[in-house]
Amino acid sequence: MTVDQITTVADRRGSVPAAGQARGRPRTSIAVRRHRAFYMFASPWIAGFVLLTIAPMAYALWLSFTTFDGISPRWHYVGFGNYRELFTDSQTWKSLGRTGLFAITSVPLSIVAGLGLAVLVNRPVKARGLFRTLLYLPAVVPPVGAGIAFKQLFDQNSGATNGVLNLFGIDALGWLADPYARYVLIMTVLWTAGNIMIISLAGLQDIPRELLEAARIDGASAWRSFRSITVPLLSPVLLFQTVTGVIASVQTIMPLLLAPDPTPAGITALPQSNYLYMMHVFAEYFAFGRYGYASALLWVLFVLILVVTGLIFRVTSGVVFYNVDPEAKK
């Protein structure tokens, strides 16, 4: 066969693909399969996020512009009327102020308590695994169970707390009423300090021992080492606990579990010190049937959480130490 005949046959059958193109096909198919596998495994979470988070938030946003009461088909579109009302509602501002005071008080106390417990159980003592388990167990108790337990413990007539006070000749106190109700609420937060203890313990064990030993050799006291080495290296953990603690505190429903009558009818009889923002939302939803107004309250809370979280990151940007720069490009 001549050269011209070979060229003609090659032209009819098509040009032979280059080596790079031949190797490119398997790579493309592998990449496609990897993308398919990723979305297949992530699809349950994506579906749950869309159906259980995005869709309810969008529905609540739509409700916030209406007068819907949850039952009657007669509702009206009021635009920003609900938002204008909440900005002039004194009960909204009072409950928001109590919530802010509760967050400012409970979050630092819980972080300090959890860090203190973590430092204690991090020491090389006997049965420290048992101590860690016992201190963490309260955090495993569901909030409803913890609320019922605290309600019975601090009951004015049959609670064990007043029983102990009676042994010392002290009259029974109304723990679940003003002005003591706020202190019981803070105790329920400290009850779950085991969660913070576990996270802080993981951070303590990640601190290089060489730094602490070098400080001890240089004559630094235990408190100086803790203040100058341990706390700066724990700053990312403390930042995480601060942000999550603030978010959890402004959304707490524990006052409802401690209420004498935890029903929509009894929500308005809560002690004023425990009538937090979420209790106001609960009352508007279920006691007064104002779904549109309550949805507007929730959306304002969502925006406030975003703003407060951004402020926390902005304020702490210069005091949080990262082993790896979080803004570094890979």
Report on the structure:
By secondary structure, the protein is mostly helical. Helices cover 69% and strands 0% of the residues. The protein contains 14 helices and no strands. Helix 13 runs antiparallel to helix 14 (291-315). The two termini are 57 Å apart.
Helices and strands, with pairings:
Blueprint: H1 3-13, H2 19-63, H3 81-87, H4 90-121, H5 128-140, H6 143-153, H7 160-167, H8 181-191, H9 193-205, H10 209-217, H11 222-250, H12 254-257, H13 277-287, H14 291-315
What is the structure about, briefly put?
Helices cover 69% and strands 0% of the residues.
Mean pLDDT: 85
- Name the helicity range: 55-70%
Radius of gyration, whole Å: 29 Å
- The total count of helices amounts to 14
Number of strands: 0
Name the descriptors.
69% helix; globular; mainly alpha; 330 residues
